[in-house]
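Take one protein record:
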Amino acid sequence: MVRATVKDVARLAGVSPKTVSNVINATVPVAPATRARVEQALAELDYVPNLAARGLRNGRTGVVALALPDLAAPYSAAVVQAFVRVAKQRGTTIQVEETGTRADREAALINRAREQLVDGLVLNPVHIDLSTIQQADSLPPLVLIGEVELPSVDHVGIDQAALRTLVEGLLRAGRRRVAVLGVMASATSQLRLAAYRDTLRAAGIEPDPADEIPSAHWNSRGGHDAVLAHLASGAQPPDAVVCFNDSLALGAMGALARAGLDIPSQVAVSGFDDLEVGRWTHPSLSTVTFDHEQLAATTLDLLAARIADGSRAPQRRTIASTLVLRDSTGPLPLDDLPTG
């Protein structure tokens, strides 16, 4: 098969080759309708950029490194898939890395970008205090995603508004003891914990530390063991558990069922991230979701702009969150509340 060219894509989309190049490289803004036509043509022709030739022309590799803390987490799979899909439309290759909470792994990736082995880096740190970013003298093109922010670095985060709506809806439904699961020192946990506390206080309820359930790991086993330990401690059982991700929620549901508690009549359960498996559990899992491809597109836009102009002022972007109600919480009175 003959490789499709930029001219072939331009002809099919009814635009100039320069416009196709602008869409692929994301260096110049393109009108949304025009971008959509070009992206459709790229997909129809299965366009694959000649990265070697492009690298010789502009000194770039066409490769962006995406570094996530834990590639075994189901959330990571969803994020990687979104980045790969969006990057392919732009003629960019995603190199996936795992950092854990190790500063040496972050440092190695930053050095790789400095040496121009990759064009830029997308990093999702867990703890700013354990990250090497703030100690670096100079940074390559870099965008942070998630909850860790630095004033000097471009950042894309997830809005927590839907989590606040969820907590308020549970309170309105008569759930008076709303607990959270997944409390730890990570930036994500602390941000969601703050949203939970703020919502309780706005409703005239002072947060009870006994309802803030810690978990050593944000996976299903961690959620299961944390809930069993909480119930065995003699603490008053909650009538709702807001979990900081879906994996924790799935473990919590198993623990509550083993303890003989019915979901949702006795305990409502919710998650965050909208993993596919949550749609098919019994009961199905209520959750907070967001557009993963919008996260990827926004991040890659910022990274392309940073590659083109390293002196530009750091930018902040926020991806909206949406509440998805399923069986695990039962219906909630949300008529006058924003759900996304």
